[in-house]
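Please, structure for the following, as tokens.
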Amino acid sequence: MTSVNAENKKTIGSVIKAIEIMDLLTASEDELGATEISHRLNLNVSGTYHILNTLKACNIIEQNYKTKKYRLGLKLWKIGKKAREQNQLALFMKPYLKELRNLTNETANLTILDHGEIVYIAQEESDRLVKMFTKIGAKAPLFCSGAGKVLLAFQPKEKQRNLIDGIVFHKFTDKTIANAAALQQELEKIQQKGYAYDDEEREYGVSCIAAPIFDFDNEVIAAMSISGPTSRFHRENTRKWTEEILQLTARISSELGYKGELNRIYRKKDS
């Protein structure tokens, strides 16, 4: 069963109870009724019904219409499948992240698209004293991060429009893209070049170079990026690092079965 530190005052009791119910259903080989669940977990019967109805409405659990008993729902399986896929992707990319980190001596990141934001799923930190670091699982906006813009640029048009429509623009710095029209122009440039920069768009003093990774379905599945202090992202380093990250992501995409126009998408920066 789920164990919660009693000293953690930021927890929500009903959420904890819901997780305990899911844990119980996970451990049980049989479907369980509401009364049995409440007795096993020492919960109020009425409160148990409310939680079960909420979980059922969210498709987290299912109810047998004949016996009225409960079991785990398909949505949890989908969540688990997604988590496994992310873990597998992070493990697969780990050697490449290390390679990119060693090539540039800047922090290398792997991000994916998740509900209108990017999520960091893997990272290899720079060995430098002054470096960038982001917690695994942290999220960032699409419109003001190199990885976010790359992931957005290579989405199917309809999905891209829907994602842009859902963005609430906010000026983090004077370099932040402020509206959908400006973002669309930037995305068109990224599609042509095959990479994106974040030049202090979210935080002053921080820069990033990002490129997409494609799979055998010719879909963008992740973005690989490097991030570090803007002072180190001068013209010479930026040109060199851009070429290195493009060559690496092209190799990864090929190994994943991508059959798209690598020469066009991953060509070197021409100016």
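The chain has two domains: 13-72, 82-265. The domain at 13-72 is CATH 1.10.10.10 (Arc Repressor Mutant, subunit A).
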